Give the backbone structure.
Amino acid sequence: MTVSNNTAENSIRPFTVGRKNWLFSNSAKGAKASAIVYSLIETAKANGLDPERYLKYLFEKLPNTANFKDTETLDQYLPWATKPQEKCKE
């Protein structure tokens, strides 16, 4: 068995390619929003979800969630949770 970091390198490749595009984030809030969306998409991909379906799922479900600041409530929306896996699998 050989030791390799290819998986880690491949997971950050889109970030390094997109970095030039992000030079034009005009505010700290814009940069933070971009980082959040990037994190959601890459985590969805890493868990075998279709990123577009996953984002749609979040946008449809989270606004109707009573206590979305509660960590136990949010846990059910994480990409490795049962419901997102059922609804958003590639």
Residues 6-88 form one domain. The longest helix spans residues 28-46.
